[in-house]
Amino acid sequence: MLGLGIIGWIIIGGLAGWIGSKMMGTSEQQGILLNIVVGVVGGLLGGFLLNLVGVDVKGGGLIFSFFTCLLGSVILLFVVKKVRT
């Protein structure tokens, strides 16, 4: 993922954040900027959690990075929804 740089993080994070928000039913409440933030933070969260269970996330490639961001985004949105209610 480091080979893509900041633009790659924004694109993958935005896409993962948008799909995650669609899956969690929060799409109407978020704009594109919040989707990007959720996706990038979700990527950090997903990478952290996968490292905890012993998955090597450094050499996973583009598709693995996307699914890591998506997993983290869904977890992040789930926690936020639980805290808000």
Verbal overview:
Keywords: Cell membrane, Membrane, Transmembrane, Transmembrane helix. Belongs to the UPF0410 family. It holds the Pfam family Transgly_assoc. This is GlsB/YeaQ/YmgE family stress response membrane protein. InterPro entries: Transgly_assoc. The protein is mainly alpha-helical. The protein has one domain (2-84). Helix content is 76%, strand content 0%. The chain contains 3 helices and no strands. The chain has helices at residues 5-24, 32-52, 61-84. α1 (5-24) packs across α2 (32-52), α1 crosses α3 (61-84) and α2 crosses α3 (61-84). The chain is globular, with a radius of gyration of 12 Å. The termini are far apart. The mean pLDDT is 87.
